């Protein structure tokens, strides 16, 4: 008999075992580990179970088997933990697009035809440029809706005669609406209709935010199991956003006053996640 699960936004759907398998596979779990985790999770399912409960169970099993894979599996939650403000998320997006060759500006004011606009993210390289709005949400059930999409498109219309920089490529032709959660269906339909670029955790189907993060292998420090939330805040305040930032600036860990054993455990986790021994 099919099991009904309760999603983060309160809606219900039938449990699809392949979705769990796919998320574990993306995290880097082996075929045997996936089969073992799926078997154990299946034993605890009941009608109406929340997706967060399934996630927590799978995560605990994966963490015991393969910590780096568990960190990648917890990526979506790690993005929520970049809060409570949206500024660290904006910085994270900037770093993500930098790896695609863009020069990045964040938190700037650009004068449009009729009004000034605070721009979360401006990106340009020799073949492309865009500005973007970063909609950060600290809970998975909150979606960016039609009103947000319409507001973003109105901003694009007012900014079309403006530029990000003085180079020829820097004219504003694209406005990206980016969120760490999801869009409503009406927002997606509107964006497609007017030509608004939209990027969320799972949208578009290919090359969405999750895909881009996995492809670039850039992970926020909030995925690290050996780092508390307060310690992560301390590092983020010093512009340490990515796990690879810790590799490049290990000395910054002195601000955490870690005992030698915990320092070594953290660095071991960072190296494993970044593919270094």
Describe the protein's architecture and organization.
A hairpin with a 5-residue loop joins strand 1 and strand 2. The mean pLDDT is 91. It is built from 12 helices and 10 strands. The longest helix has 15 residues. Strands 4-5-6-8-10 form a 5-stranded mixed β-sheet, sandwiched between helices. A 3-stranded mixed β-sheet has the order 2-1-3. The protein has 277 residues and is an alpha/beta fold.
Strands, total number? 10
The fraction of residues assigned to DSSP E strands is: 15-25%
Rg, rounded, reads: 20 Å
> Cα distance, first to last residue?
46 Å
Structural class: alpha/beta
Please name the defining characteristics of this protein.
277 residues; alpha/beta; Trna Endonuclease, Chain: A, domain 1; 3 domains; five-stranded mixed beta sheet; three-stranded mixed beta sheet; 12 helices; 10 strands; 45% helix; globular
